[in-house]
Amino acid sequence: MPRPNWFFAFPLDGAFLGALPPPPASVRCFHPEDLHLTLAFLGGCGEAAAERALATLDAELVRAPLAALPISLGQVQPFGGSRRDYTALSALLVEGRVAVARCLTELGGLLCEIALSRRPSRRALPHVTLARPRRRATDADRASGLSWASSLELGGVRQTLGRIALYTWAEMRRERLFRIVAERKLSVRG
């Protein structure tokens, strides 16, 4: 098994996934408990680097407490690669997009810098990955995945980003892909 990836993310309540129309067989939806909005992707940095970044997160949350962020989901688009060879189908944010993008750039960038000695080079684009095409998906399979994604109505999906978690791979990845290693609650707006 390759070296596991590490990342920080805001866990989401994935219960709404059960109400979506089923995807084509060539597309795998995330398990509801795996649903998250990535704050900082650290890749295969190793546990020690991830723990350094977690200590930095703790210090930052004491120095400048982060209030819970309300969000809503919108249009689902392909991510990673071109529209034809995408690697994920992800919902863009509607409500909360600007505030979350700022958090990804500032706090997420700092966590990457601590763990990886560099900040991300791409502009932050807040999104929630809902599904991925299976490895052997054909062009026709991917096209049916795009049709499924474009049929989704997520306007009623509203949540609050109230926690930040450090994730890595799950031990048994058949059902769940990720596991939470540590979690921090955000302050309540008041």
What does the main sheet amount to? 5 strands, antiparallel
Which outline best applies?
Answer: globular
| Tally of individual domains | 1
Structural class: alpha+beta
Strand order of the largest sheet: 2-6-5-4-7
How helical, in percent, are the residues? 25-40%
Task: Give the amount of beta strand, in percent.
Answer: 25-35%
Assign the CATH superfamily: Cyclic phosphodiesterase
Question: According to CATH, what is the class?
Answer: Alpha Beta
- The averaged pLDDT comes out at 95
- Unreliable stretches covering 5 or more consecutive residues: none
**Element-level helix/strand string:** EEEHEEHEHEEE
Number of helices: 3
Overall number of strands: 9
First-last Cα distance: 46 Å
Mind telling me the C-alpha Rg?
A: 16 Å
CATH topology: Cyclic Phosphodiesterase, Chain: A
Annotated CATH architecture: Alpha-Beta Complex
